[in-house]
Amino acid sequence: MSRLLAIDYGKKRTGIAVSDPLQIIANGLTTVETAKIFDFLKSYLAKEEVEKVIIGLPRQMNNEASENLPRIEQFADQLRKLYPNLDIGYFDERFTSKMAQQTMIDGGLKKKDRRNKALIDEISATIILQGYMESRRK
Q1: What φ, ψ does residue 2 adopt, rounded to 5°?
Q2: 105: how many CB neighbours lie within 10 A of its CB?
Q3: What letters, b where the CB count within 10 A reaches 16 and e where it falls short, cover 110-127?
Q4: pLDDT at 42
Q5: What is the pTM of this model?
Q6: 68: buried, middle or exposed (CB in 10 Å: 19+, 13-18, 0-12)?
C-alpha cells in the first residue's frame, strides 16, 4: 500500500500529515509556507508513493463555505493539473484548530509553545487525516 497525505491549507502556512504505508496511523509531517507548497509536494511525491491527498474542507457552523474555500479550490485545481493521476479528496476540517490546541494542552506543552501556529497547522492536518481514515473504516 501507499501513504495518504493530508493538507491543512492556509493563507500563510500549510500543515502536512501523512499516514504510514499501511494507512493505520496519521503522523504530522511538517508545516510549509503556502507559497512553497508545490515545491514541497514535488519533492515529497518524488520520494514517497502517495495513494490519495486529502485536503481539509473549511466550512462554517451552518455548513456554508468559509472565506478560505476559493483559495483551497484553486489549490486543488492546480494540484490536479500537476498530478492528474493523483486521487484528491476533501474532509471536513471544522474544529481542527481547537482540537489541535486541546491536543497540545493535553500533551503538556507550555503556553508559549502552544502559540506556535506552525505546530497547530501540522496537528490540524494530522487530525484531518486521522478523521478521514476513521471514516473509511466505518
Answers
A1: -120, 175
A2: 11
A3: eeeebeeebbbbbbbbbb
A4: 97
A5: 0.85
A6: middle
Cα-Cα-Cα-Cα dihedral of 2, 94, 79, 42, to 10°?
A: -60
pLDDT above 80 for 111? no
| Closest by Cα among 40, 9, 5 to 126 | 5
Sheet holding 87-92, edge to edge: 26-33, 13-19, 3-8, 50-57, 87-92
Strands 3-8 and 50-57: parallel
pLDDT digits (tens, 9 = 90+) for 43-81: 999 999 999 999 998 776 676 767 778 899 999 999 999
Contact 17, 63 (CB under 8 A): no
Q: What is the pLDDT of residue 119?
A: 74
Q: What integer pLDDT is reported at residue 79 of this predicted model?
A: 97
Residue whose grid cell is 519533492: 43
The total number of residues written for the chain in this structure: 138
In order of 20, 65, 138, the CA distances from 79 in angstroms are 22, 20, 28
